[in-house]
Amino acid sequence: MYKMKYQKVSFFALLCSLYVQNCVADNEIENEPLVFKPTEVKGPVVEQFLGDWTERWIPSHAKRFVNGVEEMSYVGEWAVEEGTSPGAVTGEQGLVMKDEAAHHAISYEFDEPVNDYEKDLVVQYEVNAQDGLNCGGAYLKLLAERPNGEMSNAVPYRVMFGPDKCGINDRVHFIFKHENPISHVVSEKHLDSKPASHLKPGITNLYTLVVHPDQTYEVRINGNILRSGSLFTDFLPPVLPPLEIYDPEDLKPQDWVDEAEIPDPNAVKPDDWDEDAPRMIHDPDALQPEDWLADEPLYIPDPKAEKPEDWNDEEDGDWVPPEVPNPKCLEVSGCGEWKAPMIRNPNFRGPWTPPMIPNPDYIGEWIPRKIPNPEYFDDEHPSHFGPIYGIGFELWTMQPNIRFSNIYLGHSIEDAERLGNETFIPKSKVEQSLLVKQKSENKPSMHADEEENKYLTLFLDAYDTIKAKLPPSITDQLDPYVATIAQSPEIAIAIFAVASSVIAVVITCFYYFSSSSSSSPAPLSAGVTEAEKEQQAKFRQEDENDNIDVSYAPELESTPKSEDVNAE
Ligand SMILES: *[C@@H]1O[C@H](CO)[C@@H](O)[C@H](O)[C@H]1NC(C)=O
């Protein structure tokens, strides 16, 4: 009775949610196809891949060495072309990696290096994984040397920034190189808490990195600041070495007692403690069943067996019939010698050990003394990366048709935002509305044999829809949970058979209201409210905790690109 009622409510809720979603999609104003207009934004580098792009960008087919050993060379081809995904802007050109499972390299060498420490450094570009991206990089490098047309992993960089994805290992890197002013060793500093890429097939994402002259940075995705903080504190290994280190010469004194507890020397083994008592004994209370046949053997010679005719007693020995289970034993509890079953011995105690007591001689944990770090140096300006001679892409990808467009490199956050407002925002609006439409049209075409994944599918679809409407700072937090649920559908089915209709309705309502009040991507503006900062701070902390949980995001060490990223 109760169940019937629930099913009716649930069915009604599902119908409602589908109905509302369809209404939303149908009421969406049909978007005019967008037509590209070259930007007026100026900067050291504003790249829209117009007619003369071949004068700047040189594809590389250099050989590729890893630890001095030649590996696959850069065979991947590049093209500059219009986008192929449904929301693409007519006439807008982008740089596209054309080959699957290939290394691609290309570079743009500037006439004048970009090098102004007094101002913000801003790098921004759009990425569209037009056919999806399961495993591959989409980051760019700001080059420390001119590659002379031979871009490769050997060309040193100042900054590496952008998405990198393989399976559920999905992040946006920000790595900068820092030179130790004493040893002059250059090392990589990796942003510790990396945001997810938020890449989705056919959907354009805008990636922005800002480094301020006050040694702080921002990582923005689609105009939302997902990470911000200090170059000194948020990177691994840290930019500055510790002021003090433990003195390597200071050794623990021989007579130092650091055992906090010892076995009580006065404790005596109790008299009734029998160390030899066995763990298991025969049950003394068990009785031999009345029908037990103690004198019957378990096996008897097979009465039906006959000596084969060709049996030769002299050669084969005496003939013995084979044995079969005694049929009399099958009708009763058992035959042969009866033994009581084994049970736990209530008197079992095991070896006696004295109890532990505080050690009267305990001094404490020994810690070597600290001395000033002889390798310490101070650097007030890790943001002085050095002159940037060009931009290079040097990437491995499993999926082809990853597209880069509207690159900005310069010193003006405002110009980057203006470019984003012109190119990314209108395109993103079209893409998001097409995505919603596509989702709602696909809904009824579910196969009957997918019945048992229905609730999970519904949930994931709803999540995808709402994700497009939420700032990545929130979806970043939700993603791990959703991934966990998606990986164990048997749990999910059980839960969502009950919960999905409710969730779907709530999500749809949320979506309905948020879509009628504001457009999908956040307008690009530099202002960050205190509340936002607070939220970020909280998020950063949670994300750090997330990083500890390796069960959710195992590092996929075997991906070919990881060596570049991790190489010191
Ligand atoms: C970008 O667009 C938003 C929303 O229209 C606006 O508030 C902001 O000032 C724009 N930014 C620039 C630099 O034009």
Automatic annotation (TrEMBL):
<feature type="signal peptide">
    <location>
        <begin position="1"/>
        <end position="25"/>
    </location>
</feature>
<keyword id="KW-0256">Endoplasmic reticulum</keyword>
<keyword id="KW-1015">Disulfide bond</keyword>
<feature type="region of interest" description="Disordered">
    <location>
        <begin position="516"/>
        <end position="568"/>
    </location>
</feature>
<dbReference type="GO" id="GO:0000324">
    <property type="term" value="C:fungal-type vacuole"/>
</dbReference>
<feature type="region of interest" description="Disordered">
    <location>
        <begin position="304"/>
        <end position="326"/>
    </location>
</feature>
<dbReference type="GO" id="GO:0036503">
    <property type="term" value="P:ERAD pathway"/>
</dbReference>
<dbReference type="InterPro" id="IPR009033">
    <property type="entry name" value="Calreticulin/calnexin_P_dom_sf"/>
</dbReference>
<dbReference type="GO" id="GO:0005509">
    <property type="term" value="F:calcium ion binding"/>
</dbReference>
<dbReference type="InterPro" id="IPR018124">
    <property type="entry name" value="Calret/calnex_CS"/>
</dbReference>
<feature type="compositionally biased region" description="Basic and acidic residues">
    <location>
        <begin position="530"/>
        <end position="542"/>
    </location>
</feature>
<keyword id="KW-0732">Signal</keyword>
<keyword id="KW-0472">Membrane</keyword>
<keyword id="KW-1133">Transmembrane helix</keyword>
<dbReference type="Pfam" id="PF00262">
    <property type="entry name" value="Calreticulin"/>
</dbReference>
<protein>
    <submittedName>
        <fullName>Calnexin Cnx1</fullName>
    </submittedName>
</protein>
<keyword id="KW-0812">Transmembrane</keyword>
<dbReference type="InterPro" id="IPR013320">
    <property type="entry name" value="ConA-like_dom_sf"/>
</dbReference>
<dbReference type="GO" id="GO:0051082">
    <property type="term" value="F:unfolded protein binding"/>
</dbReference>
<feature type="compositionally biased region" description="Basic and acidic residues">
    <location>
        <begin position="558"/>
        <end position="568"/>
    </location>
</feature>
<feature type="disulfide bond">
    <location>
        <begin position="135"/>
        <end position="166"/>
    </location>
</feature>
<feature type="transmembrane region" description="Helical">
    <location>
        <begin position="491"/>
        <end position="513"/>
    </location>
</feature>
<dbReference type="GO" id="GO:0005789">
    <property type="term" value="C:endoplasmic reticulum membrane"/>
</dbReference>
<dbReference type="GO" id="GO:0006457">
    <property type="term" value="P:protein folding"/>
</dbReference>
<dbReference type="InterPro" id="IPR001580">
    <property type="entry name" value="Calret/calnex"/>
</dbReference>
<comment type="similarity">
    <text>Belongs to the calreticulin family.</text>
</comment>
<keyword id="KW-0143">Chaperone</keyword>
